[in-house]
Write a structure and sequence with these properties.
Length: 332
Amino acid sequence: MKIINVILSGGVGSRLWPLSRKSRPKQYLPIFEGETLFQKTAARNIEFCDEIIVVGNQDNFQLSRRDFDKLGIQSYTEIIEASPRNTAAAIAFSAFVANPNDILFVTPSDHLINSGEKYAKSVQRAIDLAKAGYIVTFGLKPNYPEIGFGYIESEGEMVRGFHEKPNLEKAKEFIVSGNYFWNSGMFCFSAGAFLSELERYEPELYEAAQTTYRNSDGSTLDLDLSLMIPSISVDYAVMERTKKIRMVPSDFDWSDMGSFESIYTYLDLRGHPKDSNGNMVIGTNLHTEFLGIENSLLIQTSDAILVLQKDKAQDVKKIFERLENEKPELLD
């Protein structure tokens, strides 16, 4: 039995445009003490795992290789998706690579986590539960009413329900109750247990993913076969339906770095300049003045400028989606 860190690296980071592009998603931006989130993820989990499987795509696998090289990590298995088919398929490919008894510790590549004692304790508990046959998710104790995350309702390690991203009023109710945790997007289970549950609840996805994997060249997946795989998240496919679910209640420092509000907080804590009204500039040294606005960001790249109120950070995705139709060249 091996412990395998499955690093999921297929996201684009649309809420961090214009910093994040299709050619350099947010997990490869070297803005975290000079490191990328991908590098931090791989380095953070080395002590718990025997092997690494990275699931990426045609646009970013070279970036993953570069980051591994910078860390001095030479041994890992690549799965290169021809077309993104969501997290259920990505994890299934990893499970097909592994032996049934191997434990998969599944982590997104774009989270910022303080890898201290609390993190180690949560990871070890998840591995122990996975060895006992459970399908494990990590729930993060919320410290404010976030509307950009899904929530898990639980009693201890027993999961009572999954809840979509709430409105602010509902998020405040979740905080007060004390039984709701942020859905971290991190998982742990044996390869065999996951595939068994996937086949039970999503047989079409299971069969299509297995066919695609069997007809791959060992790392790169076939496009035509990939397009036959239903695009379903692992939460919908397995986590919300399996009877084997357990949640590890966790309170380590965690951020999905999914918006400029998260970036703002991160940079602010590290002394990045802001004016007396809480306005911050990212990406340029040009002298910038803000007049009549507060708690805003100006983000500049070589070909685009974005100005936003910090509390509107989740809406940047709408700009990204509009530009896909109007000016797709600004997304590359």
